[in-house]
Amino acid sequence: MVNLAQAVQPNVRNTRLSDIYGFSEQLAQIPDLVSLTLGEPDFPTPEHVKQAGIAAIMADQSHYTETWGRLATRTAAAAFLHERYGLDYDPATQVVITNGVTEAMYATLATLVGPGDEVLLPTPAFPVYDSLVELNEGHLVEINTEPDGFLLTPARLQATLAAHPRAKVLLLNFPSNPTGRSYSASQIDALAQVVAQTDLVVVSDEIYSELTYTGRHVSFAKYLPEQTILFNGLSKSHAMTGWRIGVIAGPAALVTEIAKVRELMSTSVMTAAQVAAAEAFGNGMNDAAPMRAEYERRRDYLYTAFQALGFQCEKPQGAFYLFAKIPDRFDLDSAAFCQDVAETAKVGLIPGSSFGAGGEGYVRASYATSMANLHEAVRRLQTYCANH
């Protein structure tokens, strides 16, 4: 019999995929489950954005675009980044449109990371970063931020760099999935001053930037543009996860190389989706405001409710996740706890262990669902906790 496994490259075979989706699908088989697992906006894409996409289809805009993305879409994305965050990018040489931020991340890490290259990642963090580093045969260095309220501090970054002086890339994600934590301008400035003394390339995933509750989001690229590759997009801000619109922006010398890899992955992004994206970045610049207000209302409710149940947690400053510490009286690891809660209370949560160092002992709850679902989930958790 032919051994097909030997045809697979070891780095692919050894790459671990996120167990978030698998765990969520497993829990979905439980009848009457109230799921707080996935970060999928429960709002519709804004009507004017949908109509722009429909009009593009009806006008037969169904052919290849420039591999970097339509110039009109890149121009709209650059204008959005300038207006919202004070960033200046040349759409012709510094901006690429991608099939979501996942493609942006793959193309960027494939460009920057080779065998043995060290990549610094503050954790807990979305596990796709870990998987992509493994796939490119890099070495992931986790920086456990749990002792510092789930924020990377300059002191901890300096200590990590002292131990790993040849580190090549620093991955950041804020507002964070899974913790909802983010950084103030002064905190980013302090981190940037540390990075500026190194040759690190900062890859800053800021896809949740428009879902920031405490003032306006401040981009890392504002303080260190010459060393930062920025990711943004429309999945979270405009409830457009299925449209697959991401943005890479950064120094032209790096973006040009990243664009080569991205072109080999999918040639270009769907044309009608790019037309809709230009509408979203332009006339829809403020579309996230009502969604953000509703997410903030849900956050306040869930944060207060979880604390009342004995779950300690840092108050989320953005995104739509609550990262809560399991009360000490439960003698279960996070995976076993989430399984028991799902089977007993019929509430779906994601184990903190899915997010790397500092995540064990916590659960992630997504409040990208209706307030009615949140009320029902809390009612069930109240009963569960009262019986344990």
TrEMBL record:
Pfam family for this entry, one: Aminotran_1_2
Key words of the record: Aminotransferase, Pyridoxal phosphate, Transferase
Entry keyword annotation includes Transferase: yes
Keyword Transferase part of the UniProt annotation: yes
Main enzyme class: transferase
Cofactor(s) needed for function: pyridoxal 5'-phosphate
SUPFAM superfamilies in the record: PLP-dependent transferases (SSF53383)
Family recorded in the similarity comment: Belongs to the class-I pyridoxal-phosphate-dependent aminotransferase family.
Protein name per the record: Aminotransferase
The species this protein was found in: Fructilactobacillus myrtifloralis
